Amino acid sequence: MKRAHILLKADVGGPGWTDAKIADAYDCRTKTVENVRQRFVEQGFEIALNGQKRDKPPTEKLLDGEQEAKVIAMRLGQPPAGYGKWTLRLLARKVVELKIAEAVSYQTVRRTLKKRDETKVDGAIEMANLLEGRYAACEKVLVVCDNLNTHTPGAFYEVFEPERARSLVRRIEFHYTPKHGSWLNIAENELSSMTRQCVAGRRMGSVDQLRQETTAWHEDVNRTQRGVDWQMKIDDARTKLKSVYPKIKM
Q: What pTM was estimated for this model as a whole?
């Protein structure tokens, strides 16, 4: 249904919405809209709407819903004595020892955790470890991150008890990078340039010398006010920038 709505709104003979507007309206990523457009252009309407048919039937599930829930609960709990954190192999071994399943591989455990948004779980756990460890003395921690749906205060409430989640969230100040910009790519390019042009192959005798050299470099670079010339292939441009192409009626 969502694909059908995307195609209708993207139709040049209809509303002709931009990818960003469609993504906001139907609560999906801009990349999803781009992929639907691309499949329509390259593979036709039927595949864009319904997707490609499987060559093989889906693999039968090795763990049912109750077993998956027990694996998730174990992952969120404390690891056994002698271990600093859970690993996939340790989880797989404990699943068998606790008779949750007769046999299971660590890859099955990995897929189970991934399906239940392991990224959100891991991100919240890692952030909690930092807040309660390295930054335990900090009253407020500023976190710069992208707009991925796992980078939200709500992730903590899905992982921890409400009281602990609230105490963690109160100490975090999220700063999100632009939704549809390339700010992070530009920052990564600058860091790469600084490493190659200023730091690589040199020995710095002290932290102060490193600060002086990098400061001199970035002040000189900032004075030039150089920009970024983003480019893409013609086929990609026709799909991603379709909304800005002239609409010619035959």
A: 0.37
